[in-house]
User: Which sequence fits this backbone?
């Protein structure tokens, strides 16, 4: 089975982690508009200058590699007719 997760919020990242723990051999891909994983709740600290973008990440720097997750940076567009 292949897993596709849209968005790198806490829910998406924790979902990917849980999938990997339950299904160690399958492919997991996360598509996100973001360049890195960070806490959106902590974004105001970056804007105010109190923290760097790297300081609001809630995963280790090797998370994607360690959990063998493919990262695709792209905007997601949904079409409705």
Assistant:
């Amino acid at each position: 089975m292949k897993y596709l997760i849209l968005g790198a919020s806490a829910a998406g990242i924790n979902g990917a982690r849980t999938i990997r723990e339950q299904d160690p051999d399958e492919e997991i891909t996360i598509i996100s508009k973001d360049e890195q994983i960070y806490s959106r709740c902590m974004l105001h600290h970056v804007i105010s200058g109190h923290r760097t973008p790297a300081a609001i990440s809630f995963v280790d720097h090797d998370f994607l590699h360690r959990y063998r997750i493919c990262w695709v940076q792209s905007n997601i567009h949904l079409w409705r007719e």
About this structure: Residues 10-22 form the longest helix (13 residues). Strands lie at 2-6, 27-32, 69-73. Residues 2-73 form a domain with the FAD/NAD(P)-binding domain fold (CATH 3.50.50.60).
